[in-house]
Amino acid sequence: MTPLYHDLAGETVVVFGGGAVGSRKARGFDEAGRIVVVSPEFAERLRPLEDETTDPDGPIELVRAAPDADAVAEWIDRLNPALAVAATDDAAVNAAVEAAALDRGILVNRTDVSGGRDPGSVVVPATVEDDPVTVALSTGGTSPALAKALRERIEAEIAGAGEMAALSGEIREELKAAGVAPEKRREAVRRVVRSRGVWKGLQKGRSNGRQEADTVIEEVLDR
């Protein structure tokens, strides 16, 4: 499978199944335009999501229903999602969600299978964010526990990466506007993002990080 980032802003995601797995999936799509969870029962962790908005047409919609395999296609046609998630404890219903979605050219994530996937199927990775930096990792659905353990490791490793991304992006644009040659520009930015001094400076504040970065840049440009 080829990893891709997909912007779901303004789109609908439908999750069939409101148990532990379905609720975890729903939380992972909190930036989608609309999330619809279809299930006869809902895990407690879905309640805060429902309470985040007083708008009944807001991003989280819990629908108490238990569609059987024959009714799934009608639900997908009615909701017209960009992505359908099959997260029930009924293999037949999950298979029906997958079949209906693929038949309509809709992306589908089936949570009760691992390994090989049909074209159009997606695996939802574990993610670590330090805006604007996002790291996604997946075990191909074979070991969610390992994905979680790796995510916790990476969280510590990328602390401060968001500030570094903003600073290095700012520097890159400044050097470009100043007419610095591409080779020098790339070297300067490379040296900045690899400088321990800049990382430590950013921990004390943006101005400290910028000061350290300016010293690194000056050394590169003066060579």
From TrEMBL:
The keyword Cell membrane does not apply. Pathway: Porphyrin-containing compound metabolism; siroheme biosynthesis; sirohydrochlorin from precorrin-2: step 1/1. The keyword NAD applies. It is an enzyme of class 1 (oxidoreductase). Its EC number is 1.3.1.76. Pfam families: NAD_binding_7 (PF13241), Sirohm_synth_M (PF14824). It catalyses: precorrin-2 + NAD(+) = sirohydrochlorin + NADH + 2 H(+). GO terms for biological process: siroheme biosynthetic process. One of its GO terms (molecular function) is ferrochelatase activity. SUPFAM superfamilies: NAD(P)-binding Rossmann-fold domains, Siroheme synthase middle domains-like. Residues 202-223 are annotated as: Disordered. InterPro entries: Met8-like, NAD(P)-bd_dom_sf, Sirohaem_synthase_central, Sirohaem_synthase_N. Keywords: NAD, Oxidoreductase, Porphyrin biosynthesis. Residues 130-156 form the Siroheme synthase central domain. PANTHER family: SIROHEME BIOSYNTHESIS PROTEIN MET8 (PTHR35330:SF1). NCBIfam families: cysG_Nterm. This is precorrin-2 dehydrogenase. It comes from Halorubrum distributum JCM 9100.
